[in-house]
């Protein structure tokens, strides 16, 4: 029997799912491959490109509020379809905060089945790291339990840039954790539908 360090892989059909991704722009050289790994597994699982919505925020600290707003905006939008309001409008996103690394796209209709929050926190010389890591983890869990939507924890909290690279597949032989996040979103999105 083959044992895996991460979750033992399972195959799920994500063709009926809508997935949101919100990523921070700090440490973008690490974020970029994580985002690519995440999207690759979503697409491989059958999620349609048009059903993957990507938004960005400045840093990981902003992830919980962004996930919460994106989710509620998509709920409002689905209950008032045709009103012309998009989840992107309600999140307050605009083309001016987007970077070239992201394929930030227009928000199509319908609520999300799962939202993936991606950030990379690297410990510095001050206590910033501890405060942000703790608050972001707790904030994302709170949003997930308060809303009932699976929020996938795609936040690396590492001591060095090399540790981050080793989790983004940037060091030969290393694994890109973004792939696990994409698969987790599909599995949890489907489970959420079955529990509804
Ligand atoms: C301020 C800060 C620091 C020191 N380090 C990081 C980091 O390693 N990763 C990250 O995503 N964001 C960092 N930030 C920015 C905060 O998350 C936040 O964007 C700002 O404090 C503004 O609220």
From TrEMBL:
InterPro entries: LS (IPR034964), LS/RS (IPR002180), LS/RS_sf (IPR036467). Pathway: Cofactor biosynthesis; riboflavin biosynthesis; riboflavin from 2-hydroxy-3-oxobutyl phosphate and 5-amino-6-(D-ribitylamino)uracil: step 1/2. SUPFAM superfamilies: Lumazine synthase (SSF52121). It comes from the Eukaryota. Its EC number is 2.5.1.78. It catalyses: (2S)-2-hydroxy-3-oxobutyl phosphate + 5-amino-6-(D-ribitylamino)uracil = 6,7-dimethyl-8-(1-D-ribityl)lumazine + phosphate + 2 H2O + H(+). Pfam families: DMRL_synthase. GO terms for cellular component: mitochondrial intermembrane space; riboflavin synthase complex. Belongs to the DMRL synthase family. Catalyzes the formation of 6,7-dimethyl-8-ribityllumazine by condensation of 5-amino-6-(D-ribitylamino)uracil with 3,4-dihydroxy-2-butanone 4-phosphate. This is the penultimate step in the biosynthesis of riboflavin. This is 6,7-dimethyl-8-ribityllumazine synthase.
């Amino acid at each position: 029997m083959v044992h895996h360090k991460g979750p033992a892989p399972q195959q799920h059909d994500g063709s009926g799912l809508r997935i949101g991704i919100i990523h921070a722009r700090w440490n973008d050289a690490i974020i970029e491959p994580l985002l690519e790994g995440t999207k690759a597994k979503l697409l491989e699982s059958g999620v349609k490109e048009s059903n993957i919505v990507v938004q960005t925020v400045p840093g990981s600290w902003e992830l919980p509020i962004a996930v919460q707003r994106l989710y509620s905006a998509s709920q409002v939008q689905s209950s008032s379809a045709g009103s012309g309001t998009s989840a992107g409008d309600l999140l307050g996103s605009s083309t001016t905060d987007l970077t070239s690394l992201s394929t930030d796209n227009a928000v199509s209709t319908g609520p999300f089945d799962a939202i993936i929050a991606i950030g990379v926190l690297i410990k510095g010389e001050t206590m910033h790291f501890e405060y942000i890591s703790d608050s972001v983890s707790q904030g994302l869990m709170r949003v997930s339990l308060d809303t009932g939507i699976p929020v996938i924890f795609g936040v690396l909290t590492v001591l060095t840039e090399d540790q981050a690279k080793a989790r983004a597949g940037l060091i030969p032989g290393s694994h890109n954790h973004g792939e696990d996040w994409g698969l987790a979103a599909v599995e949890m999105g489907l489970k959420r539908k079955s529990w509804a």
